[in-house]
Amino acid sequence: MRITVWDLPTRLFHWLLVASVATCAATGFLLSTPWLRWHFLAGFLLGGLMLFRLVWAFKGPQHSRWPGFLPSPAAVIAHLKAVLKGQPPHSQGHNPAGGAMILALLLTLSGIILTGFCALGGMFDQGPLAFALSFDLGGAIKELHELLANLLLALAALHVAGVLVESRLLREALILTMITGRKDLQPGQTAPEPRRKGAFTIAALVLTTGVGGAVILAHLPAKGWHPLMVPADYAKECGACHMAYHPSLLPAATWADLTSHLDNHYGEDASLPAATTASIAGWLTANASENWDSLAANRLRYPDALAARPISGNVWWKRKHRHIPDTIFQQKSVKTRSNCAACHGDAAEGLFSPQAISIPKDPK
Amino acid sequence: MILRRLIPAALICLAAVPALAGDPARDALLADYAAQAKQADAAFTGFSADRGKLIYTTRHADAKPEINACQACHGDDPSKAGQNAKTGKVIEPMAVSANPKRFTSKDDVEKWFGRNCKEVLGHDCSALEKGDYITFLASR
Asked: CA A35 → CA A38, A221, B87, distances in Å?
């Protein structure tokens, strides 16, 4: 007789998780910054998936529930010994070692998601934790995020290896079971309990609360960045020749130095009436990088304020742009490395989020 | 009787509108430059769009190569947007037909002539040059 061991929601969860983790790993470990938008998106999806899995651990069918991932250490060791002998006993759901692995995977992944939201909030001033975390704290937690991500890759590899070994020893297509959900009922076994009443209602409720709560938190003011009104004279006078750089990009001393030498402004005469200069200089220095805890303010911060320009000479700036060929910078729509706004759609707001990057390619 | 005199007068006024491009501030600015040009040279009879065009298009060997003419940044076609040759910043069209706000603020006009004449032409522009230049771009 055929029985269902993994119900459709559990299977969907499993394969969506695989796809999301693969996306996060590829974008996090291998690809460049603009790809981080998919990392964030897959991370949000993982958050939702884990909320669902939490409900299913209580309300799902028998083999999706907690007891299956909480084997005694003795049972795990006994099972591994049996595997070494080549004779593992057949398990309807997770075998003891597999169950322990699921627990390890879910806990590690929960840690990754949580630390990911911390890093996103602290470093990029985005997401539900942007209101709470400083840049430095977010950056420190990002190290943990990466450590856990490495651990997860190792665990995932062990998980797949375990599945392959058991499939071979038991002559049972375990991967196919995660697709069809079906297994043969072995002699002496009873059919598993189905999911509990109200499982979908509770899952919907938890997901709505979780996602809704996250959205509300994401709308709180971020700790490191705030919207800033750009005064008309700055937009008009400075923005006439180049993008109106956000004041958070340079320290106050650098802005003061720049605005006091406008008659020789990178080789150009950009002098303004004294009153206009004073008003612009006052606004720039009052909103200089010292007043921000944003990504750009932190990354462009220099111990020596007068060495802070040009911004494209900054070590971190150079590292982040090292893979961008000169031809991209030289093309008509960009012209120069100082034209941040040509690629960063939110440069004028001082945000520089990965999602706003769009590198133009002029037609030949 | 009065009507017979008024109609031709009105027609003349209407015909003059496109030529002056119709902005009182720009007209006042041009009148100001005309007075200065007359003062500098009694033989001054009026601004010339053709001379203005020459200023716009002439390339200056002494200037930095990327900014050796007005049209280096403002574009060959002044009715289209230009681009700062150094920073890539888009510059609104210079031609009044495409950008009616051009040459309507004396402060702005003087600021840009002050900076760009020295940088591109290598000298401060005379009232005659300024008037010719505006006349050319007002005709475009």
From this structure: 6, 25, 27
| Chain B residues inside the 8 Å CB shell of A336 | 86-88
Instruction: Note the ipTM here.
Output: 0.77
- Which residue type does A127 have? G
Q: Say whether B88 and A333 touch across the interface (CB within 8 A).
A: yes
Out of B89, B114, B118, the one facing A242 most closely (by C-beta) is B89
Model pLDDT for residues A105-114, shown as the tens digit of each residue = 999 999 999 9
Q: CA nearest A24: which of A125, A126, A127, A153?
A: A153
Question: Which chain A residue shows the shortest CA-CA distance from B91?
Answer: A240
Residue A57, phi-psi category: left (phi > 0), alpha (psi -120 to 50), beta (remainder): alpha
| Residue in chain B lying closest to A337 (CA) | B87
Closest CA to B113 of B99, B131, B89: B131
The C-alpha of B48 sits at a distance from chain A's nearest C-alpha, in angstroms, of 28
Kindly report the average pLDDT of chain A as a whole number: 95
Going from the N-terminus, what domains does chain B have, and what CATH number goes with each?
22-138 (1.10.760.10)
Chain A residues with beta carbon closer than 8 angstroms to that of B83:
332, 335
**What amino acid is encoded at A2 in this protein?**
R
Q: Which residue has the tokens 């209580």?
A: A58
A265, β-bridge pairs:
A268
Cα(A357)–Cα(A339) distance, integer angstroms: 13
**A233: its two tokens:** 């004279």
SS3 A3: strand
Q: Judge contact between B14 and B7, C-beta under 8 A.
A: no
pTM (predicted TM-score): 0.87
Nearest to B87 among A273, A333, A339 (CB): A339
Exposed (0-12), middle (13-18) or buried (19+): which is A40, by Cβ within 10 Å? buried
Spell out which residues of chain A touch residue B119, defining contact as CB-CB under 8 Å: 268-269
List, for chain A, all residue ranges whose pLDDT scores fall below the cut of 70: none
Nearest to A269 among B87, B88, B118 (CB): B118
